[in-house]
Amino acid sequence: MIERNGNTHNDMGYDKASGKYATPAEIEAKREARRLKKQKLREELLSRGLDPDFPAECQFIERPILLVPHGDNHERGLPLSIMTYNCLAQTLIRREMFPESGPALKWFVRSKVLLHEIKHYNADICCLQEIDDVQYDLFWSEELPKFGYKTIYFHQDSKSHGVMIAWKEELFQLESHMNIEFDREAPAGIQPRTRTNNVGLLVALAFTDAFRARNNRIRTSRSGVIIGTFHLFWHPFGTYDRTRQCLVIKKKILEFAGTVKGDYCKMFTGDFNSQPNSVPYLVLTQPHAQLNTQQRTSIEASTAYRYSERRNLGKEYSMEEEEEEEEEEEKREYEYDQGTDPWNTPRPDEFDSTEEQRQLVNNLIDRCNDVPLCATSLYSIGYHTVDPTHIADHHEPELSSWSTKWAGLLDYIFYVNQRPSTPATFETANNIAIAGYLQMPTHAQMHNHSQPYTGEYPSDHISMMCALEIY
Questions:
Q1: Which of 254-258, 266-270, 303-307 has the least mean pLDDT?
Q2: Looking at the structure, do residues 16 and 86 belong to the same domain, yes or no?
Q3: Do 41 and 83 sit in the same domain of this protein?
Q4: pTM greater than 0.90 (yes/no)
Q5: Are residues 22 and 163 in the same domain?
Q6: Which stretches does UniProt call biased (Acidic residues) (predicted)?
Q7: Which residues contact 200 (CB under 8 A, 6 or more apart)?
Q8: Do 242 and 173 lie in a common domain?
Q9: Checking DSSP bridges between strand 374-377 and strand 125-132, what pairing results, if any?
Q10: Alpha-helical regions (H) of 202-288
Q11: Dist. CA 437–CA 222, nearest whole Å
Q12: 38 and 186: one domain?
């Protein structure tokens, strides 16, 4: 055989040890052995939920969509999938807090994994929190359009990260949006107790003609989707302020919906820094919230906490002081998320509140109950039917946030309904069906090291996604 380099032999079959050329059968056997080895490695990666066609440093644990059974006579609705994901702002990362994470913390690595994960799950609408201001301009607004998304972003001027909503341009067109700065809102005269710099974003997305044409056999009166995303106050003693922010959310959703013409289903998502047994979750999901003893103790005790002078709402600071405060704020926020902050201690079982504190709390809860809007966490409706092994309070998954010192559920996808719905009546009462849930990991399935971690997750939060059918 004459090769291009002029050699008269095919060196592929030459065995240096024996000084002989392999026979065609021996060459084929070696090829088959290599193929089987690659196949075994591929199957091993797939069994661990990893993508064998993606570089090792950019792998993540791929989770299945757990389908909700509806029976043979189920009428199909307009398909819609919603993701919420706290992507971990790069400006919040302190390497000493992630001793095991190594290169997984670097943005040039994390960004690829985050993007690959979003591309893989391919949600119609993505609601993202902790999006770095600089990376929105340099990365997200450049990369997501390559996968068919349009984006909108909002952040508070003194904060280095904000929230973003991305939607498939083929399916939706943006009708309007509303930016929300929680510190600037005082519904029913209820002022914030401290400066939080938290924000939210609401958008009205109308179905495109192309989307309707693709689903022309499905009848619906819906015009589109109103969806919001929020990132609430992180402070361990911030229960009162988070509850006040939930009042703002309820008021703003109604206000925004009143400006949009048409029949839009309404949803909101985000990192609420609140667990299912907390007061914020209660006032969002119950039309007439009534606090139990533990909840009342938690929120009344939070009114007694005295924040630092730097959080004074009425005081002006220089640019240098603002930057210094932002850096310290972000460090404390991250330390709290990781369970390393000394404030992160158990809440008191008892608290001897004053009459003023009780009135402050009662007024806030009453104003929340006055708003004719309640919401239902979509995971609480049916996740227990497809993954009954690890259901926590209110039928919610165990966790969406992970560190070696603390883990729990902080993130939600809420559906707005004017009246409370039980799991049995939710779908018929709201003309919506839940088709599937992105599976959430259990405590037992997580390794005893912090996230992000190479080959596992690119953030300290775990993405959540619901597949819906709208009628």
A1: 303-307
A2: no
A3: no
A4: no
A5: no
A6: 319-330
A7: 154, 163, 179, 180, 182, 228, 229, 230, 231, 248, 249, 252, 270
A8: yes
A9: unpaired
A10: 209-214, 239-257, 279-285
A11: 23
A12: no
User: Do 367 and 426 lie in a common domain?
Assistant: yes
Q: What are the φ/ψ torsions at residue 202 (nearest 5 degrees)?
A: -120, 140
Instruction: With beta carbons less than 8 A apart as the criterion, state whether 397 and 407 touch.
Output: no
Task: Give residue 29's domain range.
Answer: 11-47
Do you know the residue count of the chain?
471
Task: Give domain status of residue 61, yes or no.
Answer: no
Give the count of domains, the chain. Answer: 2
Strand locations in 334-421 (E): 374-377, 401-402, 407-408, 411-417
Q: Which residues contact 225 (CB under 8 A, 6 or more apart)?
A: 80, 125, 172, 204, 205, 264, 265, 266, 267
CB-based contact 471:431 (threshold 8 Å): yes
Which residue from 61, 39, 37 is spatially nearest to 51, judged by alpha carbons?
A: 61
pLDDT in tens, 208-253: 999 999 888 888 889 999 999 999 999 999 999 999 999 999 999 9
Pairing label, strands 161-168, 172-181: unpaired
67 lies in some domain = no
The CB-side HSE value for 461 (13 A sphere, CA atoms) comes to 25
**Residue for token digits 């929020």?**
230
Give the CATH number, domain containing residue 161.
3.60.10.10
Q: Do residues 263 and 348 both lie within one domain?
A: yes
- Give the number of other Cβ atoms within 10 Å of residue 65's Cβ: 16
